[in-house]
Amino acid sequence: MNPEQMIADLESRAQQLQQRSQQMQEQIHEASSTVTSPNEAVTVQVAPNGALQHIEFSPAAMRLTHVQLSHLVMQTVQKAQINAAEQVASIVEPEFGGTEAMDFLRSFIPQPEEDEAPPPPEDGQVMREVSWSDPAQKPTPPPRPQRPADDDEDGFGSVLR
Length: 161
Description:
Blueprint: H1 3-30, E1 33-36, E2 42-46, E3 52-57, H2 66-96, H3 100-106
Antiparallel strand pairs: 1-2, 2-3
Helix pairs in contact: 2-3
């Protein structure tokens, strides 16, 4: 093969790579994920990098406790983030599939958690006294130091009395 043909082939490959790279960038830029919770109380949209772009609550959200709602928001956001990450991975898979770079990229895709939602309140209470963990007790402040009964050195008492 002559040198001119080699240069022309390399330039052609470089141009094809640049076009594919541009296409991937556009596809990634357009990728996003919108997920609605199973009870339709929460809808979220995340960007390709997983950043929350939009959150919306339906009237069904008003029937949930703050703990239930926060749990539902986190589950819904996580599902949207996983979907967005999978979209990005599928966009770059044709170019990088089977490589260490692709394995590295996939290692950052969040794994779904199979948590169940907290149970509804038993006594009709809308707000709970405790939130994230087991009932936490308020810390008791340390006792105030006792003043000495008589710290007079001269025996005449306080001048402030």
